[in-house]
Design goal:
The chain is α/β, with parallel strands linked by helices. The chain has 2 domains: 182 residues, Glycogen Phosphorylase B (Rossmann fold, 3-Layer(aba) Sandwich); 162 residues, Glycogen Phosphorylase B (Rossmann fold, 3-Layer(aba) Sandwich), CATH 3.40.50.2000. Helices cover 48% and strands 14% of the residues. Strands 3-2-1-4-5-6-7 form a 7-stranded parallel beta sheet, sandwiched between helices. Strands 10-9-8-11-12-13 form a 6-stranded parallel beta sheet, sandwiched between helices. Helix 1 crosses helix 17 and helix 10 packs parallel to helix 15. The radius of gyration is 21 Å and the shape is globular.
Length: 379
């Protein structure tokens, strides 16, 4: 969709983020806003090698980086981010603040905007796992109830908001920016073929796995249950490629589980485009990531979600994903899905993503502009 450049002053819309998934999800909106976007990074997932690469890969401007946030516990991250964001907003008041998802940065950005009475936009509003053990669930609920504009990716998300008595005029169903991110960032076919060759892989014959959430890495029992099943799959002849999050690698060493990696191809984390290329040709994805639950629906690949609960039931309902527990359920379901892989892949190739048509960022940018223009600027 071709639209004219939005009429907002330079650096007038503050986009607060703190993790690499937020960089990915917000990239199309940042591009849509153009010079109006002002990026503030809390540093929750900041390191020059990884975050810098994501900025380059996604063609994003260098953000204003907060200090002393990464590595702290949840309360410390929120408190330190909130204090610095309040100073940043006092120094240069934005016409609107945009946050995405459910991270500690999301909550800090929302509270800072609310404290300064600045219009707040929540991208990916209305997700609910209904699992109160998840800190992210508390973050997203609190942000939704202080936001002025709630951009729900799906009708299911919007229904969740209505069930919590959020006013209808604050809700907009926009689709999810993940659709356009994947379409733009997925490398072309020759590049993907070269990447698979470099890893010694053939299309539709391997498993791509990622594990990083605390529920799977904080105890030896949980991590052993996941790694044992991946090791068994690899031992049966299906290659398992495992880009390892630093937390997971450290946990495997701490718990004495590195022996379970001998038959798994464990590699360093990869860039976003490279990950999409590898995921596009996997026979099966295994992950506890929230974003991959959406990305798999654009890539047409099956996913086993190694978690207690999911805030993205649309991927499950559409047949792309299934929730499994670490241990035998993961292994048994993986073997079943791999046994009918070709039929499953053919079916998913013809199943539309439930996350929209790829125009979410355009809708969100225009809604943000209208919200900013309709709000009197405080003295």
């Amino acid at each position: 969709m071709n639209v004219p450049r939005l009429p907002l002053p330079a650096a007038s819309v503050a986009i607060v983020l703190g993790t690499r998934p937020e960089l990915v999800k917000l990239a199309p909106l940042i591009h849509e806003l153009g010079p109006a976007a002002r990026l503030l990074h809390t540093g929750q997932h900041w390191d020059e090698a990884m975050s810098g690469r994501f900025l380059r890969d996604l063609a994003l401007p260098r953000p204003e980086l907060l200090t002393g946030v990464g590595g702290r516990p949840r309360a410390g991250q929120i408190a330190h981010s909130l204090d610095q964001l309040d100073d940043a907003f006092a120094d240069r008041r934005p016409v609107a603040v945009v946050v995405q998802g459910d991270t500690n940065a999301t909550l800090a950005g929302a509270l800072a905007a609310n404290a300064r009475d600045i219009p707040l936009v929540h991208v990916e509003a209305g997700l609910r796992s209904f699992d109160r053990a998840m800190p992210e669930e508390h973050n997203r609920v609190m942000v939704d109830h202080v936001a002025d504009l709630l951009c729900a990716a799906t009708e299911t998300n919007a229904a969740n908001l209505r069930a919590e008595s959020v006013a209808e005029e604050r809700i907009a169903v926009t689709g999810n920016t993940v659709v356009e991110v994947v379409r733009r960032q997925l490398p072309d076919a020759p590049t993907r073929a070269a990447l698979l060759d470099a890893h010694g892989l053939r299309p539709d014959t391997y498993v791509l796995a990622t594990v990083h959430r605390p529920e799977n890495t904080d105890t030896a029992e949980a991590l052993r249950a996941v790694l044992t099943e991946l090791d068994t799959i690899a031992g049966a002849g299906t290659p398992v490629l495992f880009p390892m999050h630093p937390r997971t690698r450290a946990a495997a060493a701490r718990f004495g589980l590195t022996g379970l990696l001998r038959r798994i191809t464990a590699i360093e984390p990869v860039g976003y485009a490279e990950f999409l290329a590898l995921a596009r040709h996997a026979a099966l994805l295994v992950s506890d990531s929230g974003g991959i639950q959406e990305e798999c629906t654009v890539l047409g690949r099956p996913l086993l979600v190694v978690r207690r609960s999911t805030e993205r039931p649309e991927a499950v309902a559409a047949g792309f994903a299934a929730l499994v527990r670490p241990g035998p359920q993961l292994g048994e379901t993986a073997r079943t899905w791999l046994s009918d892989s070709q039929d499953r892949l053919a079916h998913l190739a013809n199943t539309p993503s439930p996350y929209g048509d790829g125009s979410a960022s355009t809708r969100i940018a225009h809604l943000t502009t209208h919200l900013a223009e309709a709000t009197p600027i405080a003295a």
